[in-house]
Each structure stands twice: as C-alpha cells, then as structure tokens.
Write a structure and sequence with these properties.
The structure is a single chain. The chain is of the alpha/beta class. The two termini are about 25 Å apart. About 45% of the residues lie in helices and about 15% in strands. The longest helix has 20 residues, at about 165-185. It has a 5-stranded mixed beta sheet. The protein has 8 helices and 5 strands; from the N terminus they run H-E-H-E-H-H-E-E-E-H-H-H-H. The chain has 2 domains: about 5-115; about 120-185, no CATH class.
Amino acid sequence: MPTRPRNSIPQPWLSFLHELDSAVHEEVRLHCMGGFVISTVYGFSRPTGDLDVLEIAPGEVGRSMLELGMRGGPLHKKYKIYLDHVGVAHVPEDYEDRLTEIFPGAFKHLRLLALDPYDLALSKLERNIQRDRDDVKHLARTVPLDLEVLKDRYQKELRWQQGNPEREDLTLQLWIEAIEEERSKQ
C-alpha cells in the first residue's frame, strides 16, 4: 500500500489531525475508509470534506476525539472538514487483519489505519453512486486490483452481509466488466 510521509499530508487535514492528536493522551486507532483514503493514500484527485471512520479504539478516548472533530464540532467549524464515524457500513469481515497504518510516526497518539484497497473498493459496493464507481476504477488502475481477489473476497467475506445479495452480485459484475473494458483499451 502506498504511504505518504508526514509532510505530504495535505492541509487542512494536517492541522486538523494534529489538533485531534493533541486532544488525547493515549494511543487512539482510527479505522479509515472513504474518500480521504482514496485521495491521500491512492492519489485520486477528488475533494472530500470528511474522514470516514469505521472504528475508533479505544472507544472511551475516541468519543471525546469524535466530539471535537465531528460535523458541527469545534474543529469542523475551524477547518470545514470533519470526522464521520460510519455507523453502518458493510465491509469484508476480516478487514481488520489487513489494515495498514498511514502516516506512521506523524502523530504522537493518533494512528490512522486504512482499509486495504480490496476492502475499500468493496465498502462502496452497496451504495454504488457515481463517485464510488469512479473510486473503484481509480483503485483498479493504480493498485492495480486483481479482479479474482476482489470477487473471492466478496464471496467469502461480504456477500453474506448484504441485504440484497443478488443486487450486489450484479453490481460487482458490472464493475468488473467496466474495469475489464477499460483495461482492454490500454
């Protein structure tokens, strides 16, 4: 997984994250996903105003950090960006085993852990809006995604979680066809 050095964390994210880091006095791990990861880790040039977080651990310490950085909170008012604790997200069941720290050593207490690219792509399957499809195409180009790994992970770790798995099966198939078509043009 690509990682970026501390000095390449874009503003206002760098200042925002430093303030979150300064607000806690023990290690806090954020399981990150969404546009922040797509843009800062995988270099997709698209704006994002939030940092989607699946889990904040430990929870008690994380709660005060979330209050500081959430939408409408003090840091959101100051920087116009915010932490978004994603309440319901379908991600592959073993995603935690594949998390990778981004910006290691950049903060004293804050540890940002990103979903691996396959888990990140699959986290977008159910919503499937145009931005999600663009993100997945970007990952397919830059990683590049192995489509067999993507299908296998979906089948083994995610499909059973879906409320309408037949719809998600079709969505994944359409994504794969679009990626294959794009690759055939190169």
